[in-house]
Amino acid sequence: MNSEVCNMIPDQRQSAHYKPNIWKFDFLQSLNSKYEEEEYYKSRAEKLKEDVKQLFVEAFEVLSKLELIDSLMKVCLSNLFEEEIREALDTIASMKNIENLCGVEEDLLYATALYFRLLRQHGYEISPDIFSGFMDEKGRFSTSKHTKIKGVIELYEASHLGLEGENILVKAKALTTKTLKCSVPSSALDSNLITKTVSHVLELSAHRRLYWFDVKWHINMYENDRDMNQILFELAILNFNMVQATLQNDLREISRWWRNLGLIENLNFTRDRPVESFMCAVGLAFQPKLSNFRKWLTKVIAFILVIDDIYDNYGSLEELQDFTNAVDRWDSKEIHEHSRNCIKLCFQALLRYDKPNCS
């Protein structure tokens, strides 16, 4: 983009003095992974997927199926087994009697809360009244001394899925929050694994986290779980590395697009944030099959930041009116001669982005 750099024009404009971009082009282009091209990893992943599908067949008990689905979600494998998960949840949701979710009294709260959370997360209609059996005659939650801490954790997670007016979940959240906070320093916790889990959920509930940014933590925790399934664990590790390879490839492409666009070298008052924009897109769509959507969204976010800075920190009222009219009519003629080159450059970049081959 051949143009005069904006800060060389005499009159001074407001600047937010943003910190420079810490992600260098050469570093981003150097990102690579052996998992991107090796056919062995792809074939191994397909074999492991078939093995995991067999786990659904072998999980006869309702709680076993729920725990399998929960594990797949936590290590970001659920998108690979959408059909199996839907079939399992359809069957579970159609059950007339849920009193036999598990055969052990101390696991009943855990099983009930897990049942509620997974069904509600997947869009099934389910009433929080299933927790009424854990309340006393005064309408207060009353957990048995035999209740395991994992049941309290699961109820805490389930309580974050409450809808307006579901007071039973409000009470559940209050009780579990208090119980878990008291449990963190307690020696009564049965393992260091549980201690870490309690601290993790209190920091931020699963409902408020982005799954892909939490996946490494869950994989590390799953590795140390005494009930860990080796097949599922191996697939989780392999899938993580394969997805990361796809994301690195996307980021390299985004980095090239951003540099070729030439905006930042001419608009040095704006935020230069292609990597941060990409991470926002990853949070919404990390799956490899959504690569095009991810790159498109990254470009939109990066452009929004630039345009936001033009409106908030830089352009005069007259220039911004011209820019708005140009965007409304998609016509560069609306930007008059008195507007600075920065305004014109930004709109020209928008026009180029609109073309089919804008990558």
TrEMBL record:
Residues 260-352 form the Terpene synthase metal-binding domain. Gene3D superfamilies: Farnesyl Diphosphate Synthase (1.10.600.10), Terpene synthase, N-terminal domain (1.50.10.130). It comes from the Eukaryota. One of its GO terms (molecular function) is magnesium ion binding. GO terms for biological process: terpenoid biosynthetic process. Keywords: Magnesium, Metal-binding. Residues 22-202 form the Terpene synthase N-terminal domain. The keyword Thylakoid does not apply. Transmembrane segments: none annotated. PANTHER family: ALPHA-FARNESENE SYNTHASE (PTHR31225:SF94), OS04G0344100 PROTEIN-RELATED (PTHR31225). This is Uncharacterized protein. It comes from Acer yangbiense.
